[in-house]
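Each field is set out as follows.
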Amino acid sequence: MPGSNPVIRETAYCLAHVPDLVRFGSKPRREIHANAAVDSQIAAALRSYTDAVRYPPNRVFVGDLSPNALATIEQPWFRSDEVVPALSSIGPFGQIVSQDLFYALVKQADVQHPPLFELTDQGCALLTTAARDSSLFAERSSEFTGVAASELEKNGDAETGLRILSGETLVGCFQADNRAEGRGDHNLSAPHLLEALCSKASGAMACSRCSNDPELSPIKLTI
């Protein structure tokens, strides 16, 4: 049929700065398991969202600088005092997403019942604020609900769950799949499921940016 061949009209990048999830990566988890002091060492080396937005390679990633421009900036780049022309989190190619906004995206991506990502009251407030400040899905921010941190700590599975932090604030707990079909399956452990939901959330962020391009008409997908 004429006109039935799909084409790529737009692309977008999503770069999430989520320092408090670093400890849950495969190698950091192994290193922390072998030496608990590594956790505090990682925390001491984390940088702020502002630093991430100003980091020259990140500006290249979102399209504010050309790759050739990096050659003119003194290394190491993370210590550079180079004044980046734009400090917005949004560039021509995509967006650098803050930690709390990304947590909100992950929470939205969690459609499991019972949920994998349970929020505390404080976490709910942080994510609601972050979502309200984002035009991409502010209308749904009121759907977030939380429980007291003490209640979450009491009900959470300390052996299989992950304590999700935003600085010193306990945002919530991310659980393994505790349904009967999920128990004992390493692929459905909390770290693996968190990684999968993070991929889903970042993909949704990029797609939302594409769909909000005023030059593109909304497209309804039929699967």
